Amino acid sequence: TQGLSLGKAACILTGASRGFGRSLALLLAPRLETGSVLIPVARSQGGLAELEAELRSSFPSLKVHSVQADLSTEDGLQLVLRAVQDKLPGAADLERLLVINNAGSLGDISKSFLDCPSPAEVNSYFAFNVTSALCHHILHPEGLPGAPWLVQDCRPFKSWTLYCTGKASRDMMFQVLALENPGVRVLSYAPGHLDTEMQQLARTKSADPEMREQFLRMKQSGQLLDCSVSAQKLVTLLLQDTFASGAHIDFYEL
Ligand SMILES: NC(=O)c1ccc[n+]([C@@H]2O[C@H](COP(=O)([O-])OP(=O)(O)OC[C@H]3O[C@@H](n4cnc5c(N)ncnc54)[C@H](OP(=O)(O)O)[C@@H]3O)[C@@H](O)[C@H]2O)c1
Protein backbone atom coordinates (compact mmCIF):
# COMPACT_ATOMS: atom_id res chain seq x y z
CA THR A 1 0.00 0.00 0.00
CA GLN A 2 3.02 2.29 -0.11
CA GLY A 3 2.14 5.38 -2.08
CA LEU A 4 -1.61 4.65 -2.04
CA SER A 5 -3.87 7.43 -0.82
CA LEU A 6 -7.46 7.94 0.24
CA GLY A 7 -7.70 10.91 -2.11
CA LYS A 8 -9.06 14.33 -1.26
CA ALA A 9 -11.43 13.39 1.50
CA ALA A 10 -13.44 14.60 4.43
CA CYS A 11 -13.05 12.38 7.46
CA ILE A 12 -15.19 12.49 10.58
CA LEU A 13 -13.54 10.44 13.31
CA THR A 14 -15.30 10.04 16.65
CA GLY A 15 -13.44 9.13 19.84
CA ALA A 16 -10.24 10.73 18.55
CA SER A 17 -9.00 12.18 21.86
CA ARG A 18 -7.23 8.99 22.98
CA GLY A 19 -6.86 5.25 22.44
CA PHE A 20 -7.54 3.71 19.05
CA GLY A 21 -9.12 6.85 17.56
CA ARG A 22 -6.06 8.98 18.30
CA SER A 23 -3.69 6.46 16.71
CA LEU A 24 -5.98 6.12 13.71
CA ALA A 25 -6.08 9.90 13.17
CA LEU A 26 -2.29 10.03 13.03
CA LEU A 27 -2.09 7.14 10.55
CA LEU A 28 -4.91 8.37 8.32
CA ALA A 29 -3.54 11.90 8.05
CA PRO A 30 -0.60 11.08 5.73
CA ARG A 31 -3.00 9.19 3.42
CA LEU A 32 -5.28 12.19 2.90
CA GLU A 33 -4.41 14.44 -0.03
CA THR A 34 -3.94 18.20 0.16
CA GLY A 35 -7.22 20.00 0.77
CA SER A 36 -8.67 17.13 2.80
CA VAL A 37 -10.53 17.91 6.00
CA LEU A 38 -10.32 15.91 9.22
CA ILE A 39 -12.96 16.41 11.91
CA PRO A 40 -11.95 14.67 15.17
CA VAL A 41 -14.76 14.42 17.73
CA ALA A 42 -14.64 13.74 21.50
CA ARG A 43 -15.62 15.35 24.80
CA SER A 44 -12.21 16.22 26.18
CA GLN A 45 -10.89 19.55 25.00
CA GLY A 46 -7.34 18.72 26.15
CA GLY A 47 -7.09 15.48 24.20
CA LEU A 48 -8.47 17.09 21.04
CA ALA A 49 -6.17 20.13 21.31
CA GLU A 50 -3.12 17.90 21.71
CA LEU A 51 -4.06 15.81 18.68
CA GLU A 52 -4.84 18.89 16.62
CA ALA A 53 -1.44 20.43 17.43
CA GLU A 54 0.35 17.22 16.48
CA LEU A 55 -1.56 16.92 13.20
CA ARG A 56 -0.98 20.56 12.29
CA SER A 57 2.76 20.35 12.81
CA SER A 58 3.23 17.00 11.02
CA PHE A 59 0.68 17.49 8.20
CA PRO A 60 0.35 21.22 7.51
CA SER A 61 -1.68 20.72 4.31
CA LEU A 62 -4.46 18.92 6.19
CA LYS A 63 -7.33 21.04 7.50
CA VAL A 64 -8.22 19.93 11.02
CA HIS A 65 -11.38 21.11 12.79
CA SER A 66 -11.95 19.41 16.14
CA VAL A 67 -15.42 19.26 17.60
CA GLN A 68 -15.83 18.97 21.34
CA ALA A 69 -19.13 17.14 21.71
CA ASP A 70 -20.83 14.60 23.92
CA LEU A 71 -22.32 12.11 21.47
CA SER A 72 -24.73 10.75 24.06
CA THR A 73 -26.76 13.97 23.70
CA GLU A 74 -28.76 15.45 20.85
CA ASP A 75 -26.95 18.74 21.36
CA GLY A 76 -23.66 16.92 20.83
CA LEU A 77 -24.89 15.38 17.58
CA GLN A 78 -26.05 18.79 16.40
CA LEU A 79 -22.61 20.27 17.10
CA VAL A 80 -21.04 17.64 14.84
CA LEU A 81 -23.63 18.24 12.14
CA ARG A 82 -23.09 22.00 12.25
CA ALA A 83 -19.31 21.58 12.04
CA VAL A 84 -19.71 19.35 9.01
CA GLN A 85 -21.97 21.88 7.30
CA ASP A 86 -19.61 24.77 8.10
CA LYS A 87 -16.30 23.07 7.48
CA LEU A 88 -16.87 20.99 4.37
CA PRO A 89 -16.68 23.66 1.75
CA GLY A 90 -17.31 22.74 -1.88
CA ALA A 91 -18.35 19.17 -1.18
CA ALA A 92 -18.26 18.48 -4.93
CA ASP A 93 -14.53 19.08 -4.74
CA LEU A 94 -14.05 16.15 -2.34
CA GLU A 95 -13.70 12.61 -3.61
CA ARG A 96 -14.76 10.76 -0.50
CA LEU A 97 -16.46 11.07 2.85
CA LEU A 98 -15.12 8.81 5.58
CA VAL A 99 -17.30 8.44 8.67
CA ILE A 100 -15.53 6.51 11.40
CA ASN A 101 -17.75 5.65 14.34
CA ASN A 102 -14.99 4.77 16.75
CA ALA A 103 -16.25 6.36 19.99
CA GLY A 104 -17.76 3.82 22.33
CA SER A 105 -18.11 2.95 25.99
CA LEU A 106 -18.37 -0.24 28.02
CA GLY A 107 -21.35 0.81 30.11
CA ASP A 108 -21.74 -0.66 33.57
CA ILE A 109 -19.90 -3.98 33.32
CA SER A 110 -20.01 -4.56 37.07
CA LYS A 111 -23.43 -6.23 36.81
CA SER A 112 -24.45 -9.57 35.40
CA PHE A 113 -27.42 -9.97 33.07
CA LEU A 114 -29.90 -10.64 35.87
CA ASP A 115 -28.90 -7.49 37.81
CA CYS A 116 -30.85 -5.47 35.29
CA PRO A 117 -29.73 -1.89 34.72
CA SER A 118 -32.49 0.72 35.00
CA PRO A 119 -34.37 1.67 31.80
CA ALA A 120 -32.78 5.14 32.05
CA GLU A 121 -29.33 3.60 32.15
CA VAL A 122 -30.09 1.39 29.15
CA ASN A 123 -31.47 4.33 27.16
CA SER A 124 -28.51 6.50 27.97
CA TYR A 125 -26.10 3.73 26.93
CA PHE A 126 -27.87 3.20 23.61
CA ALA A 127 -28.18 6.94 22.95
CA PHE A 128 -24.41 7.14 22.80
CA ASN A 129 -23.40 3.74 21.45
CA VAL A 130 -26.18 3.10 18.92
CA THR A 131 -28.24 6.23 18.22
CA SER A 132 -25.24 8.48 17.67
CA ALA A 133 -23.80 6.03 15.10
CA LEU A 134 -27.18 5.64 13.42
CA CYS A 135 -27.68 9.39 13.22
CA HIS A 136 -24.46 9.94 11.36
CA HIS A 137 -26.39 9.34 8.15
CA ILE A 138 -27.47 12.96 8.53
CA LEU A 139 -23.86 13.84 7.87
CA HIS A 140 -23.92 12.71 4.27
CA PRO A 141 -23.52 15.81 2.18
CA GLU A 142 -25.35 15.47 -1.13
CA GLY A 143 -23.42 13.99 -3.98
CA LEU A 144 -20.46 12.74 -2.00
CA PRO A 145 -19.54 9.08 -2.30
CA GLY A 146 -19.60 7.60 1.17
CA ALA A 147 -17.03 5.32 2.70
CA PRO A 148 -16.63 3.09 5.73
CA TRP A 149 -18.24 3.16 9.08
CA LEU A 150 -16.71 1.36 12.06
CA VAL A 151 -15.46 0.26 14.81
CA GLN A 152 -16.98 -2.89 16.18
CA ASP A 153 -16.33 -5.95 18.22
CA CYS A 154 -19.19 -8.35 18.13
CA ARG A 155 -18.86 -11.28 20.52
CA PRO A 156 -20.63 -12.19 23.76
CA PHE A 157 -18.72 -11.49 26.99
CA LYS A 158 -20.07 -12.33 30.44
CA SER A 159 -21.36 -9.23 32.29
CA TRP A 160 -21.05 -7.02 29.19
CA THR A 161 -24.74 -7.13 28.20
CA LEU A 162 -25.01 -3.49 27.12
CA TYR A 163 -21.70 -3.43 25.26
CA CYS A 164 -22.30 -6.64 23.31
CA THR A 165 -25.91 -5.74 22.50
CA GLY A 166 -24.84 -2.29 21.31
CA LYS A 167 -22.11 -3.67 19.05
CA ALA A 168 -24.44 -6.31 17.58
CA SER A 169 -27.00 -3.56 16.85
CA ARG A 170 -24.40 -1.47 15.11
CA ASP A 171 -23.24 -4.43 13.07
CA MET A 172 -26.76 -5.08 11.79
CA MET A 173 -27.38 -1.37 11.25
CA PHE A 174 -24.34 -1.15 8.99
CA GLN A 175 -25.31 -4.30 7.11
CA VAL A 176 -28.63 -2.64 6.28
CA LEU A 177 -26.80 0.51 5.22
CA ALA A 178 -24.59 -1.56 2.89
CA LEU A 179 -27.56 -3.41 1.40
CA GLU A 180 -29.54 -0.24 0.76
CA ASN A 181 -26.63 1.76 -0.64
CA PRO A 182 -24.32 -0.01 -3.06
CA GLY A 183 -22.51 3.30 -3.54
CA VAL A 184 -21.46 3.41 0.12
CA ARG A 185 -18.58 1.20 1.25
CA VAL A 186 -19.30 -0.14 4.72
CA LEU A 187 -16.92 -1.97 7.03
CA SER A 188 -17.22 -3.16 10.62
CA TYR A 189 -13.72 -3.62 11.99
CA ALA A 190 -12.99 -5.46 15.24
CA PRO A 191 -9.63 -3.98 16.30
CA GLY A 192 -8.51 -6.73 18.69
CA HIS A 193 -7.63 -6.33 22.36
CA LEU A 194 -6.03 -2.90 22.64
CA ASP A 195 -3.95 -1.47 25.44
CA THR A 196 -6.28 1.46 26.23
CA GLU A 197 -8.31 2.94 29.06
CA MET A 198 -11.23 0.78 27.96
CA GLN A 199 -9.12 -2.35 28.58
CA GLN A 200 -8.13 -1.06 31.98
CA LEU A 201 -11.83 -0.83 32.87
CA ALA A 202 -12.39 -4.31 31.43
CA ARG A 203 -9.80 -5.93 33.70
CA THR A 204 -10.76 -4.05 36.84
CA LYS A 205 -14.54 -3.58 36.64
CA SER A 206 -15.97 -6.67 34.89
CA ALA A 207 -18.38 -8.46 37.23
CA ASP A 208 -17.20 -11.84 36.03
CA PRO A 209 -13.94 -12.89 37.78
CA GLU A 210 -12.83 -15.06 34.84
CA MET A 211 -13.13 -12.06 32.53
CA ARG A 212 -11.09 -9.88 34.88
CA GLU A 213 -8.45 -12.57 35.13
CA GLN A 214 -8.33 -13.16 31.38
CA PHE A 215 -7.83 -9.46 30.62
CA LEU A 216 -5.29 -9.09 33.42
CA ARG A 217 -3.32 -12.04 32.06
CA MET A 218 -3.36 -10.50 28.59
CA LYS A 219 -2.00 -7.23 29.99
CA GLN A 220 0.69 -8.90 32.08
CA SER A 221 1.88 -11.20 29.30
CA GLY A 222 2.10 -8.36 26.77
CA GLN A 223 -0.72 -9.71 24.59
CA LEU A 224 -2.59 -6.41 24.35
CA LEU A 225 -2.10 -4.69 21.03
CA ASP A 226 -0.54 -1.31 20.58
CA CYS A 227 -3.30 0.85 19.04
CA SER A 228 -1.15 1.89 16.11
CA VAL A 229 -0.55 -1.76 15.06
CA SER A 230 -4.28 -2.37 14.76
CA ALA A 231 -4.99 1.09 13.30
CA GLN A 232 -2.38 0.43 10.60
CA LYS A 233 -4.22 -2.76 9.60
CA LEU A 234 -7.43 -0.80 9.28
CA VAL A 235 -5.78 1.91 7.17
CA THR A 236 -4.41 -0.84 4.90
CA LEU A 237 -7.92 -2.32 4.52
CA LEU A 238 -9.25 1.10 3.56
CA LEU A 239 -6.45 1.74 1.08
CA GLN A 240 -6.79 -1.68 -0.57
CA ASP A 241 -10.58 -1.24 -0.64
CA THR A 242 -11.25 -4.87 -1.53
CA PHE A 243 -13.52 -5.83 1.42
CA ALA A 244 -17.15 -6.76 0.76
CA SER A 245 -19.33 -3.84 1.78
CA GLY A 246 -21.08 -4.60 5.10
CA ALA A 247 -18.37 -7.10 6.08
CA HIS A 248 -17.19 -7.62 9.64
CA ILE A 249 -13.43 -8.08 9.72
CA ASP A 250 -11.47 -8.99 12.82
CA PHE A 251 -7.85 -7.93 13.41
CA TYR A 252 -6.92 -11.50 14.37
CA GLU A 253 -8.31 -12.91 11.08
CA LEU A 254 -5.99 -10.79 8.98
N1 LIG B 1 -9.87 -1.51 23.74
C1 LIG B 1 -10.21 -2.67 23.23
O1 LIG B 1 -9.64 -3.71 23.58
C2 LIG B 1 -11.30 -2.75 22.19
C3 LIG B 1 -11.63 -4.01 21.68
C4 LIG B 1 -12.63 -4.10 20.71
C5 LIG B 1 -13.30 -2.97 20.29
N2 LIG B 1 -12.97 -1.75 20.82
C6 LIG B 1 -13.72 -0.59 20.33
O2 LIG B 1 -12.81 0.35 19.77
C7 LIG B 1 -13.29 1.69 20.01
C8 LIG B 1 -12.20 2.52 20.67
O3 LIG B 1 -11.82 1.89 21.88
P1 LIG B 1 -10.69 2.44 22.86
O4 LIG B 1 -10.16 1.26 23.57
O5 LIG B 1 -9.78 3.34 22.13
O6 LIG B 1 -11.58 3.26 23.88
P2 LIG B 1 -11.20 4.41 24.93
O7 LIG B 1 -9.75 4.39 25.22
O8 LIG B 1 -12.15 4.29 26.05
O9 LIG B 1 -11.53 5.74 24.08
C9 LIG B 1 -12.87 6.03 23.78
C10 LIG B 1 -12.96 7.29 22.96
O10 LIG B 1 -14.35 7.64 22.84
C11 LIG B 1 -14.57 8.96 23.30
N3 LIG B 1 -15.86 9.08 23.99
C12 LIG B 1 -16.29 8.39 25.08
N4 LIG B 1 -17.51 8.80 25.44
C13 LIG B 1 -17.88 9.76 24.55
C14 LIG B 1 -19.03 10.57 24.38
N5 LIG B 1 -20.09 10.47 25.22
N6 LIG B 1 -19.07 11.46 23.36
C15 LIG B 1 -18.01 11.58 22.51
N7 LIG B 1 -16.91 10.83 22.60
C16 LIG B 1 -16.83 9.94 23.61
C17 LIG B 1 -13.41 9.20 24.29
O11 LIG B 1 -13.09 10.56 24.37
P3 LIG B 1 -13.60 11.56 25.52
O12 LIG B 1 -13.53 10.82 26.82
O13 LIG B 1 -12.65 12.69 25.39
O14 LIG B 1 -14.99 11.92 25.13
C18 LIG B 1 -12.26 8.47 23.61
O15 LIG B 1 -11.67 9.29 22.63
C19 LIG B 1 -14.55 1.53 20.87
O16 LIG B 1 -15.70 1.60 20.04
C20 LIG B 1 -14.40 0.14 21.46
O17 LIG B 1 -15.65 -0.44 21.78
C21 LIG B 1 -11.98 -1.62 21.76
Automatic annotation (TrEMBL):
Its EC number is 1.1.1.153. Keywords: Cytoplasm, NADP, Oxidoreductase. GO terms for biological process: nitric oxide biosynthetic process; tetrahydrobiopterin biosynthetic process. GO terms for molecular function: sepiapterin reductase (NADP+) activity. Belongs to the sepiapterin reductase family. NCBIfam families: sepiapter_red. This is Sepiapterin reductase.
